[in-house]
């Protein structure tokens, strides 16, 4: 590979995971480097294992190390088990391996730490640039170079120095001392003793231990101590005994433990149960190596100064429980490489000034700091739970954790793995996954802006306004009194139409249906063409909304949310007006999708998708067509109107029935249940069909009004004085429907704008809210609000659809 780094040379202090990862990344980018390792050999056996997670494996895959890591680990984690102090299982994730690879491509594997270091070392071609027995003792920042002196008395120079020399970093100490001389405010002086450690751990490797199933990761909960026991390759078993030291110790207070202290602690826990048939003593007696150490956990405030930067444990130290320490060391090395390569690509001379080096370091820390802080915090919280540190945590561990659904864990994986860094300049081998990594999206997912709070307020205001314009206005303008009179007299006065007294034989339901028929009958039979035309337009515009309500009600990720039952919402808006209820539904829908990762999470499928369109046809479209069919028999027409009233509810019911029939039929015939992977094609058809119907009605009505001298768009859609007295029931009903339609249209506009913004902030679209406002306005005008909602949901479904993601950097 031809050199890309020009005269840039990177000195790396530390030849462990962080340092060798960085060296391999630099080598693959043609950038000169030199690794200074303090110990006399690379990859010594120090008794430690390491878990390599999807965020680390993805980068290792780019570096060509993935297959070697998988081969060395032998057994990816297939099952996660939580056990109590008796070793009894109380929670397990039996298909953990299948789920994590399906979502994030890569498994979780455990191997000796030295094995991973050896793999990194073996993949570095320029091994002469890795020097052992070279412990850094002093660092000097010159205007044009960094100078390093080692314990052996040798001096090395480079463009800058990266300290990858662990939690007790000599490079970090030297960086602090240099900063103190030049700019005392750069480093917080309190940080020297700020490093906290609450827990200590014996971690070890044992051989020939039976009782731990291969491919299993076991956590054992106890009060103030816990175990983590992953199976390893061959006959190896890895284990961690973590104990609370009694209080958080800081800086110089943190102890260094002797071998005698280790053995003493081991004896205290000799009879602890790992499983019902395996004691800790079996692990310890069969160990081939072990180490007893305190577990500091901290993210430093400053990772760099002038020509020196720290990465890995020297910058951010993790609790080992979640396995993120080594993986985030690889991530930070990748972030530093990305910014270094970008700076070199932008430099015509392929040299870097002091200001450019500082910018590289600053960008690296800015990119990585928040993520490492959140993961360190999450790791600490997980350790506290498994040690049941408080009565509340003990209660949670004993009575809540056993019932935690697997989906809660898999949803957390999105933040843990999908937000990970990768190498921008190297291709990622194509591997399918159902959830994208954030760097494969158009932008990093973000939270909603403050505008969403305004939308909540506007939706609440619209619902209140709807109550005023629909019900208060109906009472004041005399519409409801005329409806009551018609129901009491069983006759609509101005038309002389007699109302049917009974529809179902059940008095309370018949009373409701009779009232609704009294409202709809004048609109359907009015001699004024604008009245039935407005209702036709209104009901056709609602068709896509009802389709969307039904789809979202049956979408798997919306289970147990407020929008999970389209039947209940259908009942509410049929009784109280969709202009009043839809804003409330939209607000709940916004709340359900509030997380930045909501559109990226699993559960996008709609298992009943293939039955929703038939249900819409039978439950809504046919009854709506019959509503305007010119029946000569008044009682038949009233029966049709009464039958139409539960139409939105029937759509959901028919969907449920159709899906149930198919499932029962397949079960009886022994066929496998059809997969929901193909639901996207059925959803496309739903949005296309309902959108085309709504658009055709919109275009027909608008065209008719424009070319007809008797019809007016203003009279059709804009109510006259809503609170002024009406002479006829039909006039009051027209005002009611006009207000109902206008309010749901405005609410739909706001809701659609939020969904456009959600697609943008999730990194799935480049259409921002400003463009969205223009697009929605044009859509509402030219194809109508119903068709616009259908088109938006079609595009939304395409964006979040059931596709397999793969990298676009190939």
UniProtKB/TrEMBL annotation:
The chain crosses the membrane at residues 451-470, 535-554, 566-588, 608-629, 641-659, 686-708, 729-753, 773-795. GO terms for molecular function: FAD binding; monooxygenase activity. Keywords: FAD, Flavoprotein, Membrane, Oxidoreductase, Transmembrane, Transmembrane helix. Gene3D superfamilies: FAD/NAD(P)-binding domain. Residues 8-351 form the FAD-binding domain. GO terms for cellular component: membrane. It is found in: Membrane. InterPro entries: FAD-bd (IPR002938), FAD/NAD-bd_sf (IPR036188), FAD_mOase_fung (IPR050562). The keyword ATP-binding does not apply. It holds the Pfam family FAD_binding_3. The keyword Membrane applies. It comes from the Eukaryota. Belongs to the paxM FAD-dependent monooxygenase family. This is FAD-binding domain-containing protein.
